[in-house]
Design brief:
This protein is an all-alpha fold. The chain contains nine helices and no strands. Keywords: Signal.
């Protein structure tokens, strides 16, 4: 049995009464859990078909980001900014482009106040290049570590997904066109389970 895109809104409407009942019981949502333990404990999402892997990995990466600590979220966010990509382009050495690095990091200066080098870099009229280089290099290392941790978490989550379907809703679809719907339903069911039921 397959679900067309026109049936997705109907499915959402069918889930609304369930959410109403669950929230009426004054169940307080618990804090986010590590995604590997969620996947292992829930038993409600399946191992994705090989053709759906490209859809599941970005969703798991997104969930890993938003369910982590606030510090991890902004550090991971830096990796997606064009100016930061330019700043971090040299994998081993110091930041290449000081102007790009300033554009990348200045919006997050408040989050870097713990570093004396970053304070010296952002809170003076004329930033000291040496202090800025040390500041940017430290943040760059944090970004690299956060990305490596996210990659490992997603890889582990993909490996730990298992088949435990209840009815046709989450049965993997063979057609590539259905993978996106399958991935969204799988992640949505996982989040509903742990936010309102568990």
């Amino acid at each position: 049995m397959s679900f067309g895109t026109t049936q997705f809104p109907v499915l959402c409407l069918l889930l609304l009464p369930l959410l109403g009942v669950l929230t009426s019981k004054n169940i307080v949502p618990k804090g986010p859990r590590p995604i590997t333990s969620i996947v292992r404990a829930s038993g409600i999402i399946q191992k994705p078909p090989s053709e759906c892997t490209d859809y599941m990995e970005p969703l798991l990466r997104w969930y890993t980001t938003v369910s982590g600590s606030k510090d991890k979220a902004w550090i991971l966010h830096l990796n997606s900014i064009a100016a930061c990509q330019e700043c971090y382009s040299d994998k081993d050495g110091l930041p290449n482009d000081l102007e790009a690095c300033m554009e990348c990091h200045k919006p997050f200066a408040v989050k870097m106040n713990h570093s004396s080098h970053c304070r010296e870099c952002f809170k003076v009229l004329k930033p000291h290049p040496k202090a800025c280089n040390v500041c940017f290099l430290d943040v760059k290392r944090k970004v690299r570590r956060a990305i490596a941790h996210a990659d490992a978490t997603v890889k582990s989550a993909m490996a730990n997904m298992h088949l435990h379907a209840k009815g046709p809703l989450l049965i993997p679809h063979k057609k590539n066109g259905q993978c996106q719907l399958y991935a969204r339903l799988s992640l949505a069911s996982l989040m509903i389970y742990f936010l309102f039921i568990k």
